[in-house]
Every structure is written in C-alpha cells, then in structure tokens.
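Quick note —
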Amino acid sequence: MKNRNIVFVAKSLDGYIAGINGELDWLNLIPNPENNDMGYNSLMDEVDAIVMGRTTFETVSGFDGEWPYKKHVFVLSGSLGEIPKKLIEKVSILNGTPKEILSKIYKKGHHSLYIDGGKTVQHFLKEDLIDELRISTIPILLGDGISLFGQLPKSLQFKHLNTVVLLNQIVQSHYKRNK
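Predicted structure written out below.
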C-alpha cells in the first residue's frame, strides 16, 4: 500500500492559520447556513489516521462537545504527560523525528494520514514528507499570527490538481507533490 500524507487546512489571505494568540474565530467569518463541510468528510473517508501536534490536540480537546474524530489520532509531543481517560482508545502520543514517527504509524497499518497543526505541517514539509496540500483561503487579512509555512531547506514543487470556490468566497486549492 502506498503511503500518503495530506495537509487539509484553512489560511487567511496573508498565510496565517490562527491569530497571534491562536484565535480561530475568523474561520467562521463566512456564513455557512447549509453546514458545507468544505471537503472534510471526503478527506476523512480517504485517511486511516490523523497526526497532529500537541498544541492542536490541546485546542481540539478544549472544544465543547464530543471528540470530533472517528479515526485514530497520533499526537506528537515530548512533553504531553498523558491522554485524558475518555480518549485512551482514540489517541496515542508519539515523539521522534517526522520520519521516525511516520515509520511507527505505517507499521501500525495506517498509510493514508491527515497531517494537522502548524508546527507539525512545517516540520513535515522541511523533511519533504507531505504528498498533498488542500488549502482553503478565507478572505481576511489577519496581519499577524501563526504562519502556515515556515522556512524550508529547499524548494518543494507541487502540481495543481484543482481549485473550487466554496460559499462563493472561500477558495480551496488541491496540490500534489512532484517527486
């Protein structure tokens, strides 16, 4: 089975995935009366598991309601002590380099992964371990915040697969890594 690592993320026009203090309220700027999932459910049908950083895990854990993921979540952290009891069967903590982490996950039988979280995405891109980017651009300039992309040791070229406009304002583009 071919391994595949997919980033599915929203960003502002100026390239931020969260405000300076981690604010995400701007993600709901565009009215969505029909609750369009923006391709999220089809992504979940494609992936075996989710890989996210500690900060993203803590943010999602702080949301009201049920745990939102039906797929197993691997949280990357060297400092997270334990998983809340209600999530023991749903979440695992891993640490190591991105290549070591992927090796561990692949050995567990998970080959198509959703890579989530700013620092996690940046680390995986630095190691050239991202196969697809699915980026939704929200029409807002945040001015500052947590950047989607960081510095890379070399350029990474992607092929544009398609672009759709959602809710008449959100531009979602899908790219595949040229390797």
